[in-house]
Structures are given as structure tokens and as C-alpha cells.
Automatic annotation (TrEMBL), chain A:
The keyword Zinc does not apply. Keywords: Disulfide bond, FAD, Flavoprotein, NAD, Nucleotide-binding, Oxidoreductase, Redox-active center. This is Dihydrolipoyl dehydrogenase. The lineage of its organism: Bacteria, Bacillati, Bacillota, Bacilli, Bacillales. The keyword NAD applies. InterPro entries: Class-I_Pyr_Nuc-Dis_Oxidored (IPR050151), FAD/NAD-bd_sf (IPR036188), FAD/NAD-binding_dom (IPR023753), FAD/NAD-linked_Rdtase_dimer_sf (IPR016156), Lipoamide_DH (IPR006258), Pyr_nuc-diS_OxRdtase (IPR001100), Pyr_nucl-diS_OxRdtase_dimer (IPR004099), Pyr_OxRdtase_I_AS (IPR012999). It comes from Tenuibacillus multivorans.
Automatic annotation (TrEMBL), chain B:
Its EC number is 2.3.1.-. It comes from Tenuibacillus multivorans. Residues 122-159 form the Peripheral subunit-binding (PSBD) domain. PROSITE patterns: BIOTINYL_LIPOYL, PSBD. This is Dihydrolipoamide acetyltransferase component of pyruvate dehydrogenase complex. Residues 289-316 form a coiled coil. GO terms for cellular component: cytoplasm. One of its GO terms (molecular function) is lipoic acid binding.
Length: 481, 411
């Protein structure tokens, strides 16, 4: 190991070039700061290279494959309709490479110094960067920790074998499993279940936790899974997971107390996520951490050490790029002397399942638990003209408003178009919009957008395409009862 | 597995010699327990254990000199909780416990999200930003519109002092009552809000003037080092507060309060120095009472204690009252200048900025390295004029630049 003789000084050092880190770097550069970005592997991080982007290549392919029967109905000749995973893997590599090069080019264009190496804090105001046999020390004025997290197997899992995939490992597997057991830790589990079902696998989904969705959406999701013949088992306790030459055997007790043995050819789990902090050695300098090891930050992402900021998966909350990207911008802006803040109140829940889900704000259960007087409007997509012509009639939109103020409290959708509409949902909540704010504007026709309008109209029993008996309106007004 | 590396213990060290290991392979160690003694060119230091665990392997033998960043030994960690002295739990249990903690954290976040949604201020992101940019909490802004929506105009009215502070809600709702049983948040709200109101009042009442100067800290730094070498570690602020009280006695007009109603300037005889302190809840100003009657050692101890209490949220209202002059010691955070807001109804406030090594011209007309600190002093122009403030900071600088003079003034 060779040690650099000189300690170099930097204004802002960002450790980790994932979606949070590189976004922070670019925003900081836009605001006139000189930025150094340290990344030990590839720019774009797990998200771009192994996680979000590859998984969306998979879910998109699954969605397109599921549309084939509809295409055939419309006279399109889609001869075999089979998917070739070798080609899909090549396609994924091309896409991630293009995106990664794009990020590299942007960093260069913004004059960001990118150092490839492994960073370790050697003081509260300095880091060492190790690359090959070189070890250089950099003094910093401000630092942002954006080192992300690593997937680890949940408890009771055997060591990874040929047939057990942890997280993004599955995107390198060139076969379509005969029977894939998906062990659900999060939303990705549901995505993988519908994806591989679409690819042709038999799928069993073991749900090991409640999903925090509105009850109507969850019900529709379960109905959709059932329709696809995906077997859903809610686990109470896991007994064992065993890998044999032929497959994987899972033994568990389900939520009804029944012992079950599931034999599949392969098993997928998205795993638990552990913040990548240990190699950084920052805990030695007294940074404030939560009991499960995340860095504690304020709403400008500043840690207990004022010169050090932390963003993304190393901080509390869901391990989502949505969060990391916002936090990256805020940290950079705060360091540049602006007054930003992170507010995750209206962080949308997004699932690229077939059909997809987008959900933001209060669910009906949450509103009820808090004794709020609410109106509930619901519109099923099979009454939407555009959904009909595209053959995407599965799903619905549900809106919850405050009965007294008419302020929209939550919007939940399952169905094609949910992901793109989700920004509208979030905007309506951020703007504290009222019912009239949604019903007044003009809507493209025909389009899925109209589904949102109709769901909001249903709050007052005025959805045009629902017969009077089917206006899914519910009024929960405790003050009147 | 944790690799314990030789890290920079300070003063930009690049290498160190391993003098002695306090532990051997297989030993069980706790967090912060000394592991190894290292000799640098300036000092002998002990490196503490970064966590609880077992020493797996000692890599660098005693007597060897290694560079900063070199792994000295490997430690098999026992998870994030360093204080555990019980036998290590079975791995599965540890994992399940960790999962439980994560689950709990997730539930807390959901609870917070729901609360914020229900109790939020009805304002668009743009309006919220105006409030942030002006350093005000939008929760204090009252909506003039009957719909309860806080508009851009409401915020500007509040900023311009055209809006009275929002009345406290009369009876807390059930949700709020549940929340108030949680410590660390609610008890501090009152204190903080009071200070916020004071600040707003200050900026719209007092015609502020801020005067900047620089002070050569070289001798004070040397004196501190000498004291440190003889075992007395005194913080810089203790000296600064001492010098301040002496200077204030010479310029009582800055330790005063303007009583407009009775048309008098009240020169205070007590020297209660407010210490602006940054906390997770924002700016808090605990007061060091009767600072003029205390030795530098006492000042050091009390500043430390107040700091501790502030950070832990243990301050009582009495700890924050009757200040006559406020110090904002922003130096440790950085910065070279500021235009601080006077802690109303006081007359003046001084901010001490970062002490930096700078080339300066010595009395012998040579360029030498000095420790320089900028100060920003805001004062009430109704009470004093610029020349007086300059005289005051000159006196203050004189005392700090020649700390021996401090002794002459001691009681």
C-alpha cells in the first residue's frame, strides 16, 4: 500500500455514485460548488446497474408479453409470443451501459471530479480513498455519505445456492424457472411474482409481511394474482428452506396455523437491506445512528456531525431511489446555502406489477383509525373507454377526501397507467387540492386520466360512467352518527 | 468483521508507530475500550475500539511504523449495540431482533406520515419555500382565508410583522395528547417558540448595525496549549467570555436594555451571557449567569454543562432567562462573517467565527503564521453608535490578543 504524501483538500466530497450520490453531485455543481465524487464500482449504483433499471426491463417485458392476447385480438401477428431471456439479458446490459455512460458524461460536463476507489473516514474532516495500491487522504469541508445498502438474506435462509436468488441476482439467470417461489419482503416481490408468471413460470408467492396498501387495492391485487393462478400464502412462521438437486423446499406455518410444504424449482427473495456503513468507519467519529444502524439526519440531511450529510439507504425509511434522489438534491442545496427540505409525507408507493399500483396519502383504514370524517370515491377501469380499447380493464382508482374541507387525503390506483398518473396524485396532495380543483380542469379523451376525474366525481355521486347504484361512494362521518 | 485502521488522530498525522497492544487475539472488547497505543510525531495516543466484539487477528506487530489507513487488527463485531455485555445471542435471534427494530422504525414512520397528513399546514410547496427562505416556521403563520389555506400573502404578512402570532390551540385533540407523552419534542416547543417570537420582535424593533473585526488568537492558542500541557484543558469560549465581561464593564452601554416607555437606557449591573447554541431543534440560548464573578475554570465548566444540558434538552426556563448580552460561537461550525440578530431586549450580540491559520505581518514586519478569528458584532443603533462599537471590540481584541492582560483584570 502506497500512501500519498500530500493531503488534498476538497470543498465537497460525495461518497457513493448511486442515484442519490450522482444527483447530489450534479445539483451541487449546478450551484457552483467544486464536487468530488468517490465511487468504488459503477456510476449509477445498484439502482442503475443491478436494481431499479434491470428490474423494470423485466417488468416491462412481462407487461408487453401479457398484452399479446389483446394484440392478437386486434389483428397483430405476434407469432410465438415467447420470451428469450438471453436476448433480454443482452438488452438489459445495453440499456444499463447507455444510461451509465449518460451519467458519466453528465458528471464530466458538470466538471465533477470522479474518483474510483473505496472511501474510509480517517477523521471527522477527512477520508482516505483506496484504489489498488494507492491510498490518498482528502480533507473535506463538507461530505455526503451516499453509500447505499446491500441485500442480505432474511433470517432462516440457507446460504445462496444455484436455485436461490437474492435480489438482483435473478436478472442474470438465463432460464425461466418451472416453479418460482417468491418470498416476499417488499413490493419487488410482487413485481417478480407477476413478471415470472407472465414469462411462463408457475409462481407461489409467500407473503411474510403486511403490505401497507388501501384495503380495496390490496383486494384487487389479490384478485388479480388469483386470476393469474399465482398462489398466495401468508406466512406466520418459517420453518425451513432446503435446496436439493431438483429444487427448493419451503416448510412453513401459514397465517391460519396450517403447516405447509411448498416445492418449487427456484426461490427468489428481495431480502433485507443493510446500510453500507461499516467499511466507512464513520461510527468511530461519533455520528448519530438509529438502533438499527441508519444515520440520523435532519430535514436537510445533515447528520450529528455538522459537516457530514447522509442520503438514501444509509438513512432511515424505505430503501427507494425516489427518496435518495430528493435527499441528494436537498443535501446539495443545503450545503450551497439554500433552504431546502425533505418531506416524505407524500412519498408514493409504486409497484410495477401487472397491473401496476400507485398509491399516495391516507388509506381508508388509516383515515378510519384516526376518526376522520371522509368521503370515498371509487371508479373501476372497466367503465373507462380507453381501458376498454386497450384491453386493460383490470383495476380501479380510489380517492379519499376530507368530508368537512373537501381536501383530497389519499389517491390509490391499481391498473394500467397508474405509474404515470402517480405524479398527478402526488401533486394534488402537495398542493392540498380540493375536490373542485380536480373536477374543474379539462381531461384528455379518451384516456386513463379520465379515471381519476370519475373517481373524484364519484365522491359526490356524480361519476358519469357509473350507474347510480354503482357510484362507489361511501360517506364516513362520525360527527353525524 | 470490522477492520480497525490507523486513522488520523489529528493535526494531519500521516503515520504512527505501534507502541503497545492492550488486547490480544481472542479477547472480548467493548466499544471505546483502548485497543492500541500509537506514537506519532506529536503525541502518544490510544485508539479506542469502534464497537463491541472479539479480536480476530492482530495484523501489524509492535514496533512497526505504518501509514494512516493501514489495517491494524480485525474485530468480529456484535452488531450496532455496543453496550451489550450479555453473551452474544444466537445469530437467528439477532437477525430477528434487528428485523423487529426495523419493523418498529417503519411503523413509527407510517405514524408520522399519517400525523403530518392530518395536521399539515395547507400551503403549496412554493408558499412553504417562501417561509423556509425567511427562516420562519409556516406552522406559525395564520391563514386569512376562511378555507384555512395559507397563501403566499399570509406568509409575507407574517414576515413583515403584520400578523399576530397564531394562538395556541385551546384543547389538544386526542392525537396531540397521545403525542405529548413522548419526551424531547413537546417540552422544547414552548421554549423554542418563545425565542422565535423574540427574534422576530428583535428584527422589527431594533435598527441593527453589524460591525466586523478580526482578532489575533495566536497567543491565546499558545496559552491554551501551555495549560493543556500542564493538565488544564480550558476551552477557548471560556477565555472569550471572560474577556467579554471585562470589556462590557468598560462599555456598559452594550450590557444594557432600552426602555422606550420610560425613555431610559438601563445599564445592567449583572453580566449574564447568553450562549447561542445549535441543537437539533434549532437555535437555543442558555444563559451563563454572573459570568463576571467567575474564574476562567468555572466559566469553562459551566459552559460545558450548559452545552450538555442544551443538547440533551434538559434546560429549564431559568437557564434561559435574564441574559444581558449574547455570544454566538459559530467558529466550530465554520464561517467568516454574519449579521446576527440581537437577542431582544438586549443591546448587542457578538459572533465569534472560525479561527484560521493566516499569514500576518508581525511587529517585526515579517510574515508569520497567526491564528486569526473574525468577529461580527450586531448592536442597537438607537442605544450606541458605530465608533463606540469599534472601541468596544478594540478593547475586547486587546484582552484576547494579550491574554496576560486578563490576569490584571482578575478579581
Amino acid at each position: 500500500m502506497v500512501v500519498g504524501e500530500i493531503t488534498e483538500e476538497r470543498d465537497l466530497i460525495i461518497i457513493g455514485g448511486g442515484p442519490g450520490g450522482y444527483t447530489a453531485a450534479i445539483r451541487a455543481a449546478q450551484l457552483g460548488l467544486e464536487v468530488t465524487l468517490v465511487e468504488q464500482a459503477d456510476l449509477g449504483g445498484i439502482c442503475l446497474n443491478q436494481g431499479c433499471i434491470p428490474s423494470k426491463v423485466w417488468t416491462h417485458a412481462a407487461k408487453k408479453k401479457s398484452e399479446i392476447p389483446q394484440m392478437q385480438k386486434m389483428g397483430l401477428d405476434v407469432s410465438t409470443g415467447e420470451i428469450d431471456l438471453d436476448t433480454l439479458i443482452d438488452y438489459k446490459s445495453q440499456i444499463t451501459e447507455q444510461l451509465r455512460k449518460g451519467v458519466e458524461a453528465l458528471c464530466q460536463a458538470n466538471k465533477i471530479e470522479v474518483i474510483q476507489g473505496k472511501a474510509t473516514f480517517t477523521g471527522g474532516d477527512r477520508i482516505g480513498v483506496e484504489y489498488g495500491h494507492q491510498f490518498d487522504t482528502y480533507l473535506f469541508d463538507k461530505a455526503i455519505i451516499a453509500t447505499g445498502s446491500t441485500a442480505v438474506f432474511p433470517e432462516h435462509f440457507p446460504k445462496q445456492g444455484e436455485r436461490i436468488f437474492l435480489s438482483h441476482d435473478i436478472f442474470n439467470f438465463k432460464e425461466i424457472p418451472e416453479h418460482l417461489i417468491v418470498y416476499g419482503r417488499d413490493l419487488i416481490a410482487f413485481e417478480m411474482a407477476t413478471t415470472y408468471q407472465s414469462f411462463g413460470s408457475k409462481v407461489t408467492l409467500i407473503q411474510d409481511d403486511d403490505i401497507n396498501l388501501d384495503q380495496a387495492i390490496e383486494k384487487e391485487l389479490k384478485r388479480s394474482l388469483k386470476k393469474k393462478k399465482i398462489r398466495l400464502i401468508k406466512k406466520d412462521s418459517l420453518k425451513s428452506i432446503e435446496e436439493t438437486d431438483e429444487g427448493v423446499i419451503v416448510s412453513l406455518t401459514d397465517d391460519k396455523g396450517k403447516e405447509q410444504t411448498i416445492e418449487g424449482s427456484h426461490l427468489y427473495t428481495s431480502g433485507d437491506r443493510q446500510p453500507n456503513l461499516e467499511p466507512l468507519g464513520i461510527d468511530r467519529f461519533g455520528i448519530g445512528q438509529t438502533s438499527d444502524g441508519h444515520i440520523i439526519v435532519n430535514n436537510t440531511m445533515q447528520s450529528s456531525i455538522p459537516s457530514i450529510y447522509a442520503i438514501g439507504d444509509v438513512t432511515e425509511g424505505p430503501s427507494l431511489a425516489i427518496k435518495a434522489i430528493k435527499q441528494g438534491k436537498v443535501a446539495a442545496e443545503a450545503i450551497a446555502g439554500k433552504n431546502p427540505e425533505v418531506d416524505l409525507t407524500f412519498l408514493p408507493t409504486i409497484m410495477h406489477t401487472t397491473p401496476p399500483i400507485a398509491s399516495v396519502g391516507l388509506t381508508e383504514q388509516e383515515a378510519e383509525e384516526h376518526d376522520l370524517d371522509i368521503h370515498v370515491g371509487q371508479f373501476n377501469l372497466n367503465a373507462n373507454g380507453y381501458a376498454k380499447l386497450t384491453g386493460q380493464t383490470d383495476g380501479m382508482i380510489k380517492v379519499i377526501s376530507d368530508a368537512n374541507t373537501e381536501i383530497i387525503l389519499g389517491i390509490h390506483m391499481i391498473g394500467e397507467g397508474a405509474i404515470e398518473l402517480s405524479s398527478t396524485f402526488v401533486q394534488l396532495l402537495e398542493m392540498a387540492a380540493k375536490v373542485e380543483d380536480v373536477t374543474f380542469p379539462l381531461y384528455a379523451h379518451p384516456s386513463t386520466n379520465e379515471g381519476l376525474l370519475e373517481a373524484v366525481d364519484a365522491l359526490t355521486g356524480q361519476s358519469i360512467h357509473l350507474p347510480p347504484t354503482k357510484q362507489q361512494t361511501k360517506i364516513v362521518e362520525r360527527s353525524l352518527t | 468483521m470490522l477492520d480497525v485502521k490507523l486513522h488520523d488522530i489529528g493535526e494531519g498525522m500521516t503515520e504512527g508507530e505501534i507502541v503497545h497492544y492492550f488486547v490480544k487475539e481472542g479477547d472480548h472488547v467493548k466499544a471505546d475500550q483502548p485497543l492500541v497505543e500509537v506514537q506519532t510525531d506529536k503525541m502518544v495516543a490510544e485508539l479506542p475500539s469502534p464497537g463491541t466484539g472479539t479480536i480476530k487477528e492482530i495484523v501489524v506487530p509492535v514496533g512497526e511504523t505504518v501509514q494512516v489507513g493501514t489495517t491494524l487488527l480485525y474485530l468480529e463485531g456484535e452488531g450496532a449495540e455496543p453496550q451489550s455485555s450479555e453473551p452474544a445471542p444466537a445469530e437467528a435471534d439477532a437477525a430477528s431482533e434487528e428485523h423487529a427494530v426495523t419493523q418498529l422504525a417503519a411503523k413509527e414512520l407510517t405514524k408520522k406520515r399519517i400525523q403530518t397528513t392530518i395536521n399539515r399546514v395547507l400551503a403549496t410547496p412554493f408558499t412553504r419555500k417562501i417561509a423556509r427562505d425567511h427562516g420562519i416556521d409556516i406552522e406559525n403563520v395564520q391563514a386569512t382565508d376562511p378555507s384555512g389555506r395559507v397563501t403566499e400573502e399570509d406568509v409575507y404578512q407574517y414576515i413583515n410583522g403584520e400578523q399576530a402570532a397564531k394562538p395556541e390551540p385551546q384543547a389538544p385533540t386526542r392525537e396531540q395528547a397521545v403525542q405529548s407523552t413522548q419526551p424531547d419534542e413537546i417540552p422544547f416547543r414552548g421554549i423554542r417558540k418563545q425565542i422565535a417570537n423574540k427574534m422576530t420582535k428583535s428584527i422589527y424593533t431594533i435598527p441593527h448595525v453589524t460591525h466586523f473585526d478580526e482578532i489575533n488568537m495566536t497567543r491565546l492558542v499558545e496559552l491554551r496549549e501551555e495549560l493543556k500541557a500542564s493538565g488544564d484543558s480550558i476551552s477557548v469560549p471560556a477565555f472569550l467570555v471572560k474577556a467579554l465581561t471585562i470589556a462590557l464593564k468598560d462599555f456598559p452601554v452594550f450590557n444594557a436594555e432600552l426602555d422606550e416607555e420610560n425613555e431610559t437606557i438601563v445599564l445592567k449591573k449583572d453580566y449574564h451571557i447568553g450562549l447561542a447554541t445549535d441543537t437539533s431543534d434549532g437555535l437555543i440560548v442558555p444563559v451563563l449567569h454572573h459570568a463576571d464573578q467567575k474564574s476562567i475554570q468555572q466559566l469553562h465548566d459551566e459552559i460545558k454543562e450548559l452545552n450538555q444540558k442544551t443538547k440533551e434538552g434538559q434546560l429549564k426556563p431559568a437557564d434561559m432567562q435574564n441574559g444581558t448580552f449574547t455570544v454566538s460561537n459559530v467558529g466550530p461550525l465554520g464561517s467568516t462573517g454574519a449579521t446576527p440578530i440581537i437577542n431582544y431586549p438586549e443591546t448587542a450580540l457578538i459572533a465569534f467565527h472560525k479561527t484560521k491559520k493566516m499569514p500576518i505581518v508581525s511587529e517585526d514586519n515579517e510574515i508569520v503564521i497567526g491564528h486569526m478569528m473574525n468577529v461580527s458584532m450586531s448592536f442597537d443603533h438607537r442605544v450606541a453608535d458605530g465608533a463606540k462599537a469599534v472601541d468596544f471590540t478594540n478593547r475586547l481584541a486587546g484582552l484576547i490578543e494579550n491574554p496576560n492582560k486578563l490576569m490584571l483584570e482578575m478579581i
